[in-house]
Records
---
Amino acid sequence: MRVRHRIPSIFNLSMVDVLCCALGCVILLWLINLREAKHHEESAEEEHRRITSELAGIRVDRDKAIALRKQLEVQIESLQKDKNNLLNSLNAKQAEAADLAQQLKLSGQRIASLESELRERSKRYEAEAARTEALEKELRLSEKRSEKETARSRELTAELKETRRHYAAEKALASALEKEIAQRLRDLKDANKNLEKLVASRHSLQRDLEARDREMTMLRQQNKILQGEAARVRAAAEKRFAGITLTGRRVLFLVDMSASMDLVDENTKAPAKWADVGSTVARLMSSLPDLEKYQVIVFAEKPAFLFANGEDWLSFNPQSTPEHVRNTLAKITPKGGTNMYAALQLAFHLRAKGMDTIYLFSDGLPNLGEGIRPELLSTLSEVERNDQLARHIRHTLQSNWNRPLPGQPRVRINTIGFFYESPDLGAFLWALARENEGSFVGMSKP
């Protein structure tokens, strides 16, 4: 009997069907990933354009502030020159006033001397008048005498004429002195008027100088304000934390302390990861140029304030606060799940107290909290559960916690992802920041 062997076939129709299905799945996955990559690329390009536009606006504001500062410096220099000119003019007026005062003093002394001389000449005039009267009496008496005394009478007549001539000369000199005194008095009045004008001019110059000083003080203050504003603009343009614009006056730091924050992956411990989280929070806190008040919430399965004062704001001290926060976080041991819903719900209690910015630090998707009906928990996979919880958080932020309110701006949420591999986590944190006017940055693994 002849034995026949059947030749084995490597491929059959079933194997071809399996291969075709596998190839189709691979192509489908490739197309899905390609579409998501294009979407992410378009979003990143749009974000880059927005950041470039903001940076250009900041540079324009900086250039305007610098130009305005230069213009104010020119005005200050011009006002300083005007002040120096006014001071020189004031000094000249003061010297002129001193000269006039000296002349006035000399005129007063000359008038006193002339008055004294006039009194002496008046006395002499009165003496000469009395003597003349006596001579006239003697002449009249001598005329009654005999002719023997005619010679004596002639001598007396000659003496009388001489006395009258001296009297006329003295009278003319007295009249001249009176005129000179009157002129000196008029000059004195004019000098007093000029002195009053100089004093008034001096007061006016002093008022002008005081006004110029006040104006220069105001300009210096305005210049200081503009310099501070320019420094703030430069700081806002230059101080950026890994792509995040550093803004916020009343800021909440929301830190994930679930068990994964101490792991590289499910089976690998990361001894430095939690310490890096604390250092990053402190470094970011130190880099915020406008920070005035702050608060820190840590969360795992439940959220809690890092410090015991609860929902009250803490005053920020740039010398001590960052190190105090870092040391306090270092005392915590990460453990438990990630209930991000409860953390954000507690965080938004501070919105009514002026909260304007949140910085969220996390390494995983939410896996606990509201957003899934209890009867569905057992039917959903971990990926589906995480996705529904993340969608519920984003929807609640838009419709409730961070919805627009009249007269109150929305809270800016920035997200920082730590040591993660899942693109779903990156997409969630990016969308969370983008929908709330913030930015997202991913921290690489060590």
---
Amino acid sequence: MVLNLDDQKIYKKLDADMMYKSIEMLWAQMKQVLDEAHLVKVPREYSKVTQVVINGMGGSNIGIGLVRAGLNDRIKLPITITPGYQVPALVDKNTLYLLSSYSGNTEEPLSVYNEVKKRGAKILAICELGDNKLARLMMKDNIPGYMFKPEFNPSGQPRMGLGYSVLGAAMLLAKAGLFSIKESELKNVIAKLELSDQIFRPGEPVKINKAKQAAMKLYGRVPIITAAEFLAGNLNILRNQFNETSKNFATFLELPDLNHYALEGLINPKNNKDNLVFLFIDSSFYHARVQKRADLTKQIIKKNKIKYVEHQLSGKTKFEQALEMMQFGTWVSYYLAMLNNVNPAKIPWVDWLKKELE
């Protein structure tokens, strides 16, 4: 029996950690970053670097991918995201290296610090304010960066603090001279996110709530998220959220690349039509040929008797649409968790793995 998403009792039953509150306050997280940006100082010599490398895991990684793709038409230098224990050979004194850890205790980015420092890279860091390893390191070695107090993320889950990681990383990179963005533009985007959030909240009925509608169409299947170009970073975010928040396996395919290999795989196994569902995120900012490819891809999916869901973005800029997709996708993953009858905050297998690694 499929749960009724308009029944407010299910949210009280399943969401003891109040994940919905964190989602509602995405705009407030971003406003906090914007209000605190003047307190953050980045040395002038950081603007002379020739490349950027970023190390972050999970929820501390996905927001940076959105920044790289969503602001691709403004960012002046190549950005490489290399999560893990290894430092690429390309890292040198001309590299801006960002250590990203929401908790400040993430093992992988902390493990590379000494090697990155040895190579003379210009180091920045972003983490939660408090008694954690990265914050202590920032204080000890005078590492510039941003330490935030997550007052608008009551769930405590990094993937629900994307306002801090997305705008925090964007703010640091902007101060390092990688791109420019006007404060007025950010204020306008934040105001729109605050307004649009109202129509996605649990109290809004299914008949007008597009996030609930999408979740119901995805329920019981493996979502394949499909987007293109400046939304490439969002693909990783939403895949993360479906897996961790919804406890629902999901993957993604990116246009136009998927047209060169994935279409023939729709034929088998024969139960694809019962198990898969495509979620297309559409935008008028896509290249005209990509928009045509998306339409043709939908036709091929339909001919293979596989379902698909469409969502059209409406923001006035590419970055605004990237944030719009992030907000919408976060709500969809939350409602899919409700339909799956799971606590959206708990990540028991991730917790088990971390404990076994100790």
---
Amino acid sequence: MFSNIKALELVKKFSTVEVNDIQDAKLRTQAKKLKSKQGGFTLLELLVVVSILAAIAGTATIALQDTDARASAAAHVAMMDELNKGIRTFRVLNKNTLPTNFDSLIQTTAATDGSTGAARLTVSAIEDVALLDLQADAAETLNSGGIDALRYVNVDATFDPADAGDCSDVAALIGSRGNAVVPGNIFMSPAANGCGYTFPIADQDAVTDGFQFTALPKVAVWTGGYERVLGQAGQTFDATAVTTDGSILVTAVDGAPLLMAVGMGPSSTLFNANDLGGMTSVPVYRHVSATEYNRFVGLFNIGTVLAGGATWESADQVVLTAIVDGAGDTKEEELGEWDGTRNTI
């Protein structure tokens, strides 16, 4: 038997042989066959290899289908947990005081008194919210709990320079390539490439961002059912959906909690690293369109529906109930996207 080195040397020498110079016809025929094998694969062999590779590629494509989207869903679940823990930790470290200056999810028209009479933010992907006037006792509870201001979008705001656009059409502004406006920062001020301003809940005589505030603001309240965010305890309240006329309750279940929905935007003190318990990054929700608000949303219990379902009273203390994603899905619903049992990606 030849060693591997010796065999390679013989093969190399054989490759230099001119087959047609071999005198013996039988040996010449055998040499030609060997030469043809050295030349590479036959067409049939190539077709077999290509077929095998195609089959492997097809199997891999099926196995990896939606992998990126499911990985994003898993990341979103982790972000929801981190926000939940972050808010609760902030409250403990700051002597029972919640972070403030959350995004209201509401857009407004300019008014000298800072009133908030406009509709819900048009670029928001969440449908399960409605407008409600904040009552004085609830404002006092929010203030005492640390939430003394919310961010609103002023659709009449303009930028400097003016060619950067204006806030009259928020979706078009975000979609434009001529400015630095992005959906997650839309509640920031024009100086920070947003359309937002702060509405102080604590002091109705305050002047902020050029507004004189003499009225209580509107807030967004959750209308997507209670069992989804409260679990079994929510079943009692799901018989009648929460509805409003934009200012007051129209229908609700007696004794049901009233949940204020706010966006977890970068203007919140929750993300001020200089504050005790402040988080260092603002999570982004990826499963919305390029012009829709892409932050997570917190649901805070601010009151209880009274008998008759058309009035409510403030809670004794503001409590974080749940974190939902930018489309209004709960953690369990987002988990369904991750494990493939819920195809809404």
---
Amino acid sequence: MILSEKVNPLLEGHHGGAELAKYENGVAYIKMTGACSGCPSAQYTVEDIIRSIVLQEIPELDDIILDMSVSRELIDMAKKILSGEIEIRK
């Protein structure tokens, strides 16, 4: 709710967003989406913007961390491209 109402409107101008990937032991892991997922500044966005907004709303959280794991969907797509199952057009 906080991400969709307070964070994502800020990131929409960059054609991206943020979503909760998981919550574990007081730590929220945030996954960047859209254009923000591949942005070299994603770590700074989480540290400087998202962390302050979320911790202001939920001060009992211990930390907010960028989840940089690769999605299963992206891995499957890469396998299809490498196997020739999907053709990349130039």
